[in-house]
Amino acid sequence: MRYIRYLFLAVLGVALIAVALANREIVSLKLLPEGLARIAGMNQSVELPLFAVIFGGAIVGLLIGFVWEWLREHKHRAEASRKQREVGKLEREVKKLKGEKHRGKDEVLALLD
């Protein structure tokens, strides 16, 4: 199974390098469209290779997806935490009740119960 993972990572690496080599052209990334840039007075742009834009978009999309999923699963994590606290409380109560049940009895007879 480990070798399959290494093979997959190698193929993925070769594919990413091929995409990067095929998309080395410099592109201009602008913050706003021309009309809005003139109105707002903000004509900011940056020059990047196309593969950096592609990989950056993929990474930003993954990060947004991870954060979205983490926020969506908050209710499940909160419920699990609440259940874990309840289990701990019940375990302490059972231990306390077992101690009270055998109080004053002979230790050997208490072990047999």
TrEMBL record:
Coiled coil spans: 73-107
Keyword annotations: Cell membrane, Coiled coil, Isomerase, Membrane, Transmembrane, Transmembrane helix
Keyword Cell membrane: yes
Highest taxon above the source species: Bacteria
The Lipopolysaccharide assembly protein A domain, residue ranges: 42-94
InterPro entries: LapA_dom (IPR010445)
One Gene Ontology MF term: isomerase activity
One Pfam family per UniProt: LapA_dom
Membrane-crossing residue ranges in chain numbering: 48-68
GO cellular component: plasma membrane
Protein name: Phosphoribosylanthranilate isomerase
Organism: Primorskyibacter flagellatus
